[in-house]
Amino acid sequence: MTKRARAHRRGRDALATGESRCRGASPVAKESRARRRAGAVLCICFVLGCAEPTEGLVSGRVTVDGAAPASGSIAFFPADGRSGTAGAAIKDGQYAARVAPGVSKVEIRVSKVVGQKKLYDAPDSPVKPVLAELLPARYNDESELTIDVKLGENEKDWELTTK
């Protein structure tokens, strides 16, 4: 029997008995390697899990003339211009957004349906709603609203009027 055939037979026999075919890797070395990998994974999870928060969670209610709008949007623009903008959808008067800490200008938009428009110039064309801004410009394009966001949770309700 050739050297190659004997090596093949040894490998096949080792597989059948569950022994390792790896040369130079004792069971102790394999266990040590597994422990090092597990330790590295735990360290990474610990570091990522213990990282300091870099944003504030801003949440609350929006009301327009005392009623919660079905939908809308809220946007946060940092006053210093150094961090990114943030925003969220308003659903049933509720919103929640992750915002960079510091003073931010706030823009709130709520639309209302003012009509319908055909999608195509055909008699059986589907229609889409035509929307207009419900809120005055002082709440969006020329916003006077601001918030000072702190790290962690921030709650802010906005009571707006259309007049």
Q: Briefly, what is this?
A:
The chain has helices at 3-17, 27-49; strands at residues 56-64, 71-78, 86-91, 94-99, 102-109, 111-118, 127-133, 145-149, 152-155, 158-160. The protein is of the alpha+beta class. It is elongated.
Annotation keywords:
163 residues; 39% strand; 2 helices; Immunoglobulin-like; 4-stranded antiparallel beta sheet
Which bin fits the share of residues in helices? 10-25%
Series of secondary-structure elements, N-terminal to C-terminal: HHEEEEEEEEEE
CATH architecture of the largest domain: Sandwich
**Shape estimate:** elongated
Task: Return Rg in Å.
Answer: 31 Å
The number of distinct helices, counting runs of at least 4 residues, comes to 2
Beta strands, count:
10
* Category by helix and strand content: alpha+beta
If you consult CATH, what is the topology of the largest domain? Answer: Immunoglobulin-like
Please state roughly what percent of the residues sit in beta strands, choosing from under 5%, 5-15%, 15-25%, 25-35%, 35-45% or over 45%. 35-45%
Mean pLDDT figure: 84
Q: Any idea of the CATH class of the largest domain? A: Mainly Beta
Task: Provide a descriptive summary of the structure in words.
- This protein has 163 residues and is of the alpha+beta class.
- It folds into 2 domains: 47 residues, no CATH class; 105 residues, Immunoglobulin-like (Sandwich).
- Helix content is 23%, strand content 39%.
- The strands form 3 sheets. Strands 1, 4, 9 and 10 form a 4-stranded mixed sheet that branches.
- A hairpin with an 8-residue loop joins strand 6 and strand 7.
- The longest helix is centred in the N-terminal third of the chain and has 23 residues.
- The protein is elongated.
- The N and C termini lie far apart (99 Å).
- The model has no long low-confidence stretch (mean pLDDT 84).
